Amino acid sequence: MFQNKLFNFALIMIISIAMLGVVAIVGFQYFGKSSEAAKTAAAPTAEKLAESQFVVEKITTNLSGSSLIQLGVTLQMDSNKAVGEIGLRKVQVKNTINEILHSTTAIDIQKDAGYKQLEAKIIEGINKYMQHGKVVDVYVTDIVVQ
Among the CATH numbers 3.30.70.2190, 3.40.1170.60, 3.40.50.300, 3.30.479.30, which is that of 46-145? Predict the structure, then answer.
């Protein structure tokens, strides 16, 4: 093509680098968009969350000591199948929550981390006997401590 071999080599290198740059830009844009779409798809909608929730009837019971508590919770399950199972186990669920509350004092709940510890104990206690899913979060909808 050209008489000078050094010029030919330099021209081929410049074209190769330019082509690699174009391929890198196109690849980054293609894979970058798919990962953004995956991130937005991973965030569940409110409807999806509502489908996998189970509302536990209000529980009124004694705390450890002389205090009384009225508690309403909603359990966030990891799947619809788990919601079906927890519906069949609602007596066990209420019993588990009662046992946890009976071993908790009003002071425990009023501490800064006490509320979160109560939620963690409920999750752990219920997940022990779940076979087709698990509780991923507990929402305390009503709480009255006297």
Answer: 3.30.479.30
